[in-house]
Each structure stands twice: as structure tokens, then as C-alpha cells.
Amino acid sequence: MKLVKKINKQNLPVILSFIVLFNFSFGAFLYNFTHDPYATNIIERLSTPGGAYLFGTDEVGFDIFSRTIIAGKIDLFISLSGTFAALIIGLPLGLMASDKTKNADRIMKVLDMFQAFPLLVLAIVIVAMWGNNIRNVIFAIILINVPRFTRLIRSEALTVRESRFIEVATAMGASKTRIISKHLLPNILGTLLAQASITTAHSIVVVAALSFIGIGVVPPEASWGSMIRAGSQYMITGQWWMSLFPGLAIFLSVLSFNTISQYILRKYEQI
Amino acid sequence: MNKFDKEVILDIRDLSVNYNSSGNKISAVKKVSLSLEKNKMLGIIGETGSGKSSLIRAVNGLIKHPGTTSFDKLEILSKIGSNNNFDFSEMRGSEIGFIPQNPFGSLNPVYKIKKQFNFVNKRHQLFGKKEMGSEIIRSLAEVGIADPERVSNSYSFELSGGMAQRVVIALSCFAKPKLLFADEPTTGLDVTVERQLLDNFFTLVNNNDMTLIIVTHDLGIVAQYCDEAVVMFKGSIVERGSVEEIFLNPQDDYTKKLIEASSEEIS
Known about the structure:
- Chain A has 271 residues and is an all-alpha fold.
- In chain A, 73% of the residues lie in helices and 0% in strands.
- Chain A is built from 10 helices and no strands.
- In chain B, the strands form 2 sheets. A 6-stranded mixed beta sheet of chain B has the order 7-8-9-3-10-11, with helices on both faces.
- At the A-B interface, helix 7 and helix 8 of A face strand 7, helix 3 and helix 6 of B.
């Protein structure tokens, strides 16, 4: 088996990470759940894990296992698409802002203005103004993260721009666009990937926080945030499984994003 | 020094470099005029902060905002610019070369050395893909690298300081510039490595019919390798002449002091 042979110590964690993320992203289509994630069973509410219900049930009798799996589909989609879009917008803005011109100062001023708002409140305002749907949650995540990316890319680009090798490349005749694509970007890519991973993780938390107060993903649609919150009220009476499993799901997906990002970084440095 | 007899490769008239930092204007180079004939080696000496690095950066068009460069006339290899305008884009790399100090910072850390040679090749279309491998090895060996094969497959941070500086020299000379500027190329190297490197470097310059301007505060280098010398002090040229004139019969007070201070080094 060619594929099995390619697995080694270095890429095993990455393969596992992809399996985890693949599970959460496409779990809704992959599995034939024994319990319908959208069906409540009030008689068997708060049943312990391990029995008929693998991860137990919650206070209205939803099956935690199937809901933990299918929640990933929507949570990961929101976090990833929001982060990706923020990166696409933030990258050119950050590069522009790193050029020492008047426009650069203007970009930074606008960003300062944005960052003066408490971001979570800003997200709530957006959803309140334009309606409670997933598209607006994504929009809120973009709005939260664009200033972060722009700021990070700017500060990174500023340091790299001062590097001697940029000067040498200029002295060797490299054009401005070439310097940006071949010298500037590769040198900030590492930080960029790390930040993208952290941002995705952070976005998962933001989505959870929003669904905690009933914004974005609302029941009966499943999301990790709302599941943890529902479980938090039962923690003290000993029903730990309601929060633990969606919590583990968040932990695993964040870990997976970090592992993948680190692997890309390492691969990248080998070129 | 008749301008019409010999080929003048560099002619600068009234070049100034100013740095504006938060309202303070600092004049690093004050109305310097300088000309140089082909195949001469010119050493620019002076203390730290005398404007020697700023001068050759300006001649390479490398002064960045908030620094400004102004000149009446700048002629490099018969290309003439005036009124503070000079288009460097076509000359860089193939006509004029620049070797900075700090070799580690001068190499992009994300690429292997051979890849950086390929960048230069791509820009200047020097060799075909098949020849490139052997050309890189050849040019690395030319600057005195003992195992060019390994070095070409390394990243800059895997090299020693002397190695990295040799690589930078090889890289800067790869497109065979006719006029080469070196800004203290041996800073941070010990004396034995410095001498070997300079021997390799000046052989390379001679073999390839280059004209060299080297900035240094090591008068020994100038005395040993250069034809002519320029002494800079506080942004101005205080004395200019052949190496013999400068070292054996200095006219300016500052030059006298400078040579006195480092007389042990020269002898």
C-alpha cells in the first residue's frame, strides 16, 4: 500500500487532524446515526453516557453524540469562512499600510477606530441591525478579524521591509511586486498561518459565545457553544457529559488547526 | 585626471543625503562631488557616521523614506541623470552591484542559497536551466568556498559569517556588474578570514574587469588593495588622491589624525 507507507512520525498528527476536521465537517453525511440529532426524547432526558446513548442525552433528550458531530459542520464553516475572508481582505490592507505613505496612516486610523469598540458587542450590534442569521455572524467575524490581520501583517511587513535582504534584492534589480511576492510574503507567511490558526480557534469561541446568548446558530440546530451553555447549568448536579463532549470537540478542532498550521510551516521551510 | 583621456565610469556632482526624523534634519552627505575611472579601485575611508555608507547607498538609489537624496548630476556608466532623477531599475544587478555589511541579514532566510542564485538568473537571464547548477558551484568556488555543493544546498542561517559574506559577494557578482559597491564587506570577521576573503574578492574583481568602490574604516584594506582613496568627514570629502598620496603625504588635518591613529594597522 503506497498510501500507508507515506505515513510517518511527522505527518501522522496532521493526518489525524484532517480526519478529526473531516469528521466534524462532513459527519452529518458520513454517519447513519442511531438517534436522530433533531429528535427529542423527553423520557430519556439526562441519561448517562455509555448506555443506549453513547455520549448521553441533554435536558430535553437530544442525543449528545450525534449533535456534537453535526454541530461541527456549521461551527467550522462559520469560523473558517470568516477567517479566510478576513485574511483575504486584511492581507492587501496590511501590505498597503506597511508602506510609509499618507494613505497607510489613514488605514491605520480607521483600524484604530474599529478596535476601539468592544468586538463582541460590535458583533451583537451587527446581528441586531441586519438580522439573526448565519451570514451576519460570518460578517461579524470578518469585521472582528480584519483589523487583527491588517495590524499583524503590517507590523510583520514593517520589520521585513527593513531587512538587508530586501535592500540587496532591490540592488540586484528585483521589481517592487517581485519583492512583495518573493521576499516579503514568504517571510511573513509563518506568522500569518499561525495567526490564521489562532483566529480560526478564536472564531470558534466567538461563534460559541454568540450562540450562548442566542445569536447565530439557534436550537434545534446544533452548535458547540449552545450545547456547552445548556450543559453548564447541570454541571453542579453531576451531569458533566452535556458540556464535556462539545468542549472536547472544540478542543480537538483547535488542536487540529494548530497541528496543520505547524506542519505547513515546517514543510514550507524545507523548500 | 583628465576626464577626456580615460573612460569615466562614475561621475557625481553635488550629491546630498538628508534624513528627516520628526522635524530634525540631519545631513549625512553634504554636496559631495566625485568621479572615478574604469578599472580603478577606490576606497572610501572615514569614521563612523561620516556619511560613507549613505553616499554609496545614494549612488545605488537605496536611500529610503524618510531619507532624501538630491544631486545636480549623476552619471553611472554613461547613463546620465540630473535634477535628482535617475532611473536605476535597468542598471541594478547587471551594471551596478552592491554588497552590504551584515551578510546574514543580506540573505533571505526562507530560501536555499541556490534558489537565491536562481532569482538573480531569472531577473537577468544569464544562463539556461541546465547550466545553472554548475554555474552556481563555479561562482561559489570562485569566492573561495571549499565545499560549494553543500553551501548551495544550505540556508543562510546554516553558514558561518565568513561563508555567508562570500555567498553575498558571489551573489552580487553573479550578473557581472561593471561597477561594484561594497559597504564594509568584512565587518565582524576575524583577521585571518578577512584577509582570505579580501584576496578572493579582489581577484574576482580583477578577473571580471570590474570597477570597485569599497567603504571601510580599516585603512589597512585601502592601503593594501586600492588604487585611490577618499577621506570623508562629517558628510564631506576632505581629501582625495592616490593611495600613496593619502598615506605618505596627507594634506588635510583630519586625514593626518586618522592615519596617525591607525598607523600600526597600516605598517
